[in-house]
Structures are given as C-alpha cells and as structure tokens.
Amino acid sequence: MTTLSRTTTLLAALVAGLAGLIFTGGAASAVTQADAAAQLSAAGITWSSSGGCTTQSNSTCTSFSGVRQATIDGAKTLKSASGCALNITGGTEVGHAGGTYSHETGYKFDFARTTCLTNWIHNTYSYQGLRGDGAPLYKAGSGNLYADEGNHWDVTFYTCGC
C-alpha cells in the first residue's frame, strides 16, 4: 500500500466516522428517561413535579424522555459553574409552549428559583431585556438563554456550555 493510498484510506475512515457522529446526532441526540435521570442524579441535580411522576404525556409530571444530551450536559455545566443546588421542575412533558427550541424538542429545562441560582445568573450573564411574554431574559456567553418566569428559570440550552 502506497503512502497516498494509506492517506486516502485514513481520510475516508475519518470522514465516515465524522458522518456517523453527525447523522446520529452527536451531543444533540435524544436521551431516554432512564439515562437522563441517571446522568442528572450522578451530577447531584434533583427534579420534582406536582404529580410526582415522569410520564411525558402528563403535564403534572417532569419528564426527560427525548431530552437532548446537550441539554443534560448544559445543566451539569450550570451546576458545576454556579455551585448552586439545581432542581428541575420542567422537562419534556406536555403543557409547555411549542417551537423549534422548546421543552418538547428537548432544548429546555425549568429550574426551581433559588437565591443562589438567581444571583449567579444576574451576576454572570448579560441582561437582554424582556422576552415577548414579559419575562426578564439573560444570555450566557455560550448563547444559552435564561428567562425568569417568576417561580422558576426557563433555560434554553443551545449548547452544552452554561
């Protein structure tokens, strides 16, 4: 095998590997309820719901079914960077507003409002003004958005950075 053919073979393998990563979703791929719960629990992130359940089709539950891996990683990064306790109160369950970057599509988590988290967001991120629904909006350097919805933070994780 010549050097040129070895190089061509290596490049073809690299392209095929990257294509596999891209077409399987990479960090954006959807995660099961069990896998998401295991990852979040291992990171010390808790969750709760008024219904005490995880059924995606029930609006009183907090479901992680179909959440993006990047959203989970973003929550883990937020916990690590902020040093705050995080409790997820909203995931992919029905009852949230729809859209491309929504709870339903796995881009968002709601976090219980705490003094620690609120102070960290206010002191770390850039205030963007009011969202269309009147919620104060903050933007991280990563592009992720934090909307103060009163009793919780509605967070859109475009990337796994916080």
From TrEMBL:
Signal peptide positions on this chain: 1-27
Keywords of the record: Signal
Highest taxon listed in the record's lineage: Bacteria
Protein name per the record: Secreted protein
Organism (species): Nocardioides plantarum
Lineage: Bacteria, Bacillati, Actinomycetota, Actinomycetes, Propionibacteriales
